[in-house]
Amino acid sequence: MPVKKVGWRDLAKGVRYMVPPLLDIQRGNLLRLAGLRPASKQSIGKVIEYWARRTPHNIALRFEDQQWTYAQFNAWANRLAACWAEQGVGPGDTVAIMMENRPEALACVAATVKLGAIAGMLNHNQSGEVLEHSIQLVTPRLLVVSAECAAALATTCFTPVASAPNTAQPAPSICYLWHGGDQGEPAPPGWLDLDEYAARQSQANPPGTGRVRAEQPCFSIFTSGTTGLPKASVMTHYRWLAAMAGVGGMTLGIRRKDVFYCCLPLYHNNALTVAWGSVLSMGASLALDRKFSASQFWERVRHYDATVFCYIGELLRYLLNVKPCPTDRQHRIRLITGNGLRPEIWDQFEQRFGIHRIYEFYGASESNIGFINLFGVSQTAGFTPLPFAIVEFDNDTETPRRNHNGFMQRIPRGGIGLLISEVTPRRPFDGYTDPAAGEKKLLRDVFKKGDCWFNSGDLVRDQGMHHIQFVDRVGDTFRWKGENVAAGEVEGAIAQHPDIDHGVVYGVSIPGCDGRAGMAAVTLSPGVTLNGPGLAQHLNRLLPAYAVPLFLRIRDHQETTGTFKYRKVELKQQGFAPDQVAEPVYVLLDSQRGYQPLTAELARQIQQGEIRL
Questions:
Q1: Matching Pfam families, A to Z (predicted)?
Q2: Checking phi first, is residue 460 left (phi over 0); if not, alpha (psi -120 to 50) or beta?
Q3: Which residue has the higher pLDDT, 20 or 555?
């Protein structure tokens, strides 16, 4: 696929995206944030109270066949906040929340931030050591759990009743709150029933909400843990409010009557900040669903009569993989926003579903910079007015290159390098709950002595005009035959083959060879068998020879995180040897013959250098 560069003509065409329908937008609340500073007494709780006061009867939240007005949602959050306060929760304390997507989860978040406390958004897909590690990272004062997550919590030491002899017990200061889930399961011994407890509380606004400052933390958002145990990144009210105003209000042009559909997990910032923040920017409605379903997605969109939705990772590719039907364009979606839309399927998605306003963005929970497709240019992660740099990167050492003076060097337009952004008082790096983990993300003495820059850990392409295109995570780019191979670009080429449903690309070591050879774990489309010569021909046509994967692994399905990121660590560790891989493995020894089964003997010859690749 040709490299997409951005020029003045693209910006001129996109000016219309920057002029939202002013008559439909009530800017009053956004104007109040124009002078936002870290020390400002502005917070998420104040925004909720603003809409509850100004538009009390507008719908704030919809879930399945239920709905809550802004007045009702604010009162609900206040009752929960009173519960928290009665248990001693105050500014800076953490309330850990472990629920699937449900309205109670969002109400618990709102209650927490109203007190100046921090919502620790636990991943309900975790269990055992990983979940225990996550809870320990945030040291919660309260732990709020819904019945559907009880089994996962029982695999940790965090339970008010010992589940087994010699099981370590958590700190006695933790208060355990129980939500009965869909079936209203009664609270087990040692737990407080959330609904019963809240029903006895006042629905008045907490007096402390007005004292919460923008610089205070509001959420702990966990990394996906694709390369190890999760880290808890810190989100402040300041960054959340800036995203609310900049993305939802000024960029997307969210309207009061919009219904924003979200089926992404609330423990992820795409849901908690992008979706909910966009809704609160204009007092619109959030339509929350339990989880993403490719087969039911458009039916759910129509159920809520949604006008906007957010996406992440492979979600849009999953929608494209569903067989086309006449109702593909029977919806009222006018714009979508998210990240991870690969360039090779951008136009296909836009045309099939008739959605022409795609606000792709780039950002991370811990990052102090963001990009968004403000001008409506295709195949870009977007534009930012903030200063940033893309510097030369050494894929062998996985570190940015420095010149003879010890400083980093910017790459030319069109080049690929490491994205970094300067850390300043107005653009701080909020870091993680673990200070040591935060320090590892900082680069010092980058262009001059004493400066400090945030290391995004992402390789991007400089498209010009302050636009970037995401290429890969550091570590997903490997070197072979003296050339850098971006796994994401190879995955894009694989995805264009009609027989391939999903494909994951990574590098594997071969004894006696420098660098790492490309390997792809692919899932074939239903009813399809591998056409080794055809796939090799397809990839050789789209990719340079050094980037074509040498090994192929056929999988029934791909393992992903809760936010659709592929798990590659185990795949890299297993490599290509048939005795390490339970699934069929193929090798490309001859472009004409294509991919052929990798036998134990062939693997032995490759590992011992008898066959040179």
A1: AMP-binding, AMP-binding_C
A2: beta
A3: 555
Q: Are 309 and 335 in contact (CB under 8 A)?
A: no
Higher pLDDT, 285 or 8: 285
CA distances from 574 to 295, 549, 580, 583, 608 (A): 32, 16, 6, 11, 18
Query: What residues are paired with 143 via a beta bridge?
Result: 96, 176
Measured CA to CA, the distance from residue 223 to residue 218 in angstroms comes to 16
User: Apex CA 435: angle with CA 429 and CA 436, to 5°?
Assistant: 115
With H, G, I as helix, E, B as strand and everything else as coil, classify residue 51. helix
As a whole number of angstroms, the distance between CA 51 and CA 279 comes to: 11
- Identify the band that residue 561 occupies on the pLDDT scale cut at 50, 70 and 90: low
Question: Given this model, what pLDDT does residue 248 score?
Answer: 81
Cα 2 vs. chain centroid, distance in angstroms?
Answer: 27
Tokens of 458: 């992402």
List residues bridging with 391 in a β-sheet.
Answer: 410, 418
- Given a contact cutoff of 8 angstroms between Cβ atoms, the answer to whether 133 and 231 are in contact is no
Quote the percentage of the chain above a pLDDT of 70.
92
- Nearest alpha-carbon partner for 35 in 184, 238, 232: 238
- pTM here is 0.80
Tally the residues of the chain: 613
- Answer for the pair 484, 395: CB distance below 8 angstroms, yes or no: yes
pLDDT bin (cut points 50, 70, 90) of residue 159 is confident
Secondary structure class of 408 (helix, strand, coil): strand
Q: Which helix (H) or strand (E) holds 573?
A: helix 569-574
Q: Which structure tokens are listed for 158?
A: 């965090």
Report whether pLDDT(169) > 50. no
Kindly state the percentage of the chain with pLDDT values over 90. 59
Instruction: State how far the Cα of 490 lies from the Cα of 478, in Å rounded to an integer.
Output: 12
Q: Which residues, including other chains, have CB under 8 Å from residue 240's CB and lie 6 or more apart?
A: 44, 218, 219, 273, 277
CA distance linking residue 267 with residue 44, whole number of Å:
17
